Amino acid sequence: MPASLSGKWEMISNVNFDNYMIALGISASLRKIAAKLTLKKKIERQEDQFIVKTTSTFRNYTVTFKVGQEFNEFTKGLDNRHLKSLVRWEGNKLICEQTGEKKNRGWAHWIEDDKLHLELFCEGQVCKQVYKNVSKTR
Ligand code: YOG
Q: What lines the ligand 1 site, CB under 6 Å?
């Protein structure tokens, strides 16, 4: 049975987030705020359409996409850049390539041991986050 990315998730670990943010060019003052946040994800899926909401007490960010279909992404409230993004499945991993000013940028999501895993990539830095499921029903 393939585990689903869909549901509500809450961050339980966050490794190398500061270096990822530095690679994105985020200021020291914003990084200090961001480092203290417990991020939440709400992932909804309808066929190949995904809505991924990242929420926190400070800012929220939503991205909507169809797998295999390139889209324009504006990282509003994050690093505020315009990207060409493309999400695809690679085995059980949902992988996003974010083409723009920053090289080797993107992310990967997958399920492992009932946890949602996320790797965030930018310019050789990799931030690794793990989320526990907080859905009311599964
Ligand atoms: O997720 O791309 O799930 O979009 C990473 C923040 C902090 C603002 C969050 C607000 C990168 C200040 C999105 C955080 C740091 C720091 C809550 C990661 C940038 C600015 C929104 C992401 C993907 C995959 C879906």
A: 21, 24, 26, 30, 34, 37, 39, 41, 52, 54, 56, 58-61, 63, 78-79, 107, 118, 120
